[in-house]
Write a structure and sequence with these properties.
heterodimer, A: 193 residues, 9 helices, B: 3-methyladenine DNA Glycosylase II, Chain A, domain 3, Alpha-Beta Plaits, 2 domains, two-stranded antiparallel sheet, 12 helices
Chain lengths: 193, 279
Amino acid sequence: MEKLISILFIYILVDNFVLQRFFGICPFLGVSRKMETAMGMGMAVVFVITLSTLVTWLVHYYILVPLGLEFLQLVTFILVIAGLVQLVETFLRKTSPTLYQGLGIYLPLITTNCAVLAVALLAVRQDFSLLESVVFGIAASLGFWMALVIMSGIRERLDLAKVPASLQGTAITLITAGILSLAFMGFRGMLSF
Amino acid sequence: MQILFAVIALGGVGAFFGLLLGLAARFFAVPTDSRIEAIREALPGANCGACAYAGCNQYAEAIIEERAPLNGCIPGGAMTAEAIAAIMGEEVDAVEPVVAAVFCRGDQRHARDLFTYHGILDCDYAQQFHGGFKACPDGCLGLGNCVRACPFEAISMGPRGLPLVDQSACTGCGLCAEACPRDIIRLVPQGDQGHLVWCSSQQRGKTVTRSCEVGCTGCRACVRACPQEAISMEGYLAVIDLQKCDDCGLCVEKCRFGSILPRRESAAPAAAESEAASA
């Protein structure tokens, strides 16, 4: 139990996937323009990462390990994640149109998000149990969501600020992301398991 | 031997998901009307919301469910309405094309400022700061919220801080009118026929003359002069009915303040002044 809680906090704050490990930078910069889209994307990411970590863990320990095929990890995980996301999308469209509208375009976008794959790979590499893997997935995706929301909040304010001409647009966004990452370095070494 | 396992395992997983997806596609199929796709193709795709729906997609769905009128797309105009009618197999009334017009001529030369504004360059913010920096409470602030709101790049900021509408690019979606905190922009029928009072001021005459050289004071000289009785008063503001106006120009001669101009010339003074300023 103690380990689960420390996993939760470590991967939300200390070892944030976006700000400390630099996974999923593309959606972090791409959909953080507005708070609304950031919330949608964050929700979809939590959903997909948790589910895919669960399934890839099962695939790894019940298919790949017994057959001695650990080297196929990467390819299999990509396949599983892509198939899973597509399946979930089809399922949601029929059963819950509201949720489907909410997650909308973000679901297919996440299929190729490296953070999703990274969580699946790291869960196996760190010898997590099934429960630990799922908690790890939830924590990593919550951290991603938090980073996205913080970033969009800052960017909404930046839109109204007087930014020097040479720094407008992408430049100031990257600088902001860098400073945000530096700020999160303050959590370094506060927790470990 | 191991390579055989690898092929079988990966192929197996792939086939499993393929099968699952195939089954899911069959069992969870949502029947969609192919006409939605066709209507969406026919719409301009700017998602401007002039039809009162969130975007072109929602409007297309609303048409299929027979809730929305076929000619609801204002930017698309008659052509889009006909295209949609063809898809739906119905007849349709044409939409009257409208364009946006800026009802203020109080540019930096003609209108007085109360104070110098150094805040955020946004009309909404300027408006909240002591009710705006212009002496006239209905004058254009010129910070360009309308320019930014236009999805068709039909509005540009003129040389003296008044927005200029490009009639050929304007689709009449009305987003600029919504974006304006002072409601200076209104939609008028397309074309350059008729005269208009280019002012939105609801102030008494004395207040207007103190704050702006070209504002309508509500003196009623034009109302009395108009042989067509096309001009009426709305509070302290003269308003010209374009349906009755026959372009005689008597009101222009009577107006001491220059608030009334024929529509075909309304954009010209600004252009002429910018040339004069650069020369």
